Amino acid sequence: MGRVVVYGSVSVDGFIADEHDQPGPLFDWLTSGDVPLDESGLLKVSQTSAEYVRAYWDRIAVTIAGRHVFDLTDGWDGTPPSGVDHVIVVTHRPPPEGWDPAAPFDFVEGIEAAVAAAQELAGDRFVEVAAGDVGGQALAAGLVDEVRMDVVPVVFGSGKRYFGSVDVQHLLEDPAEVIQGHRVLHLRYPVRR
């Protein structure tokens, strides 16, 4: 099975959004370079970031996100983000009214069921878990192989935490990669088992 990776852009003090779900400058690095990251041409990063991020994105088959993120993004209009094949939404609620059942999204109750469904779909490719509450739940359940962070040089002071409400210590291995891009530091940590 493919690796399960918690991923997200994060402030230096560990937040993925402010208290009003606004990312502020956390995604500015995605438009601060001159190398296109996708076909849209909207995302342009430094050469270093492009090589790192593109290699990672190309390995992701399935993204797991919570219902809150799904609702904030309007379900990405039924198209998985960043070229991902499928999205698993962790939720206790049914799909929104009028949702296209043919869209490559599954609505699953519980993080364990979500990871199992995602791994089945992903095969040997990566399962990405969005940072925040769902990422923290996956880490706490022992389901995560790796943590990737795009650390942005900003301090929020408060907001939505990278691992949500996790309040128990979890050890990670030494960084497997540390890559400096423009206005971002890419970090990759294997999870200690």
TrEMBL record:
The Bacterial bifunctional deaminase-reductase C-terminal domain, residue ranges: 113-170
Pfam families referenced in this protein's UniProt entry, alphabetically: RibD_C (PF01872)
InterPro entries noted in UniProt: DHFR-like_dom_sf, RibDG_C
Highest taxon above the source species: Bacteria
Protein name: Dihydrofolate reductase family protein
Organism, as annotated: Agromyces aurantiacus
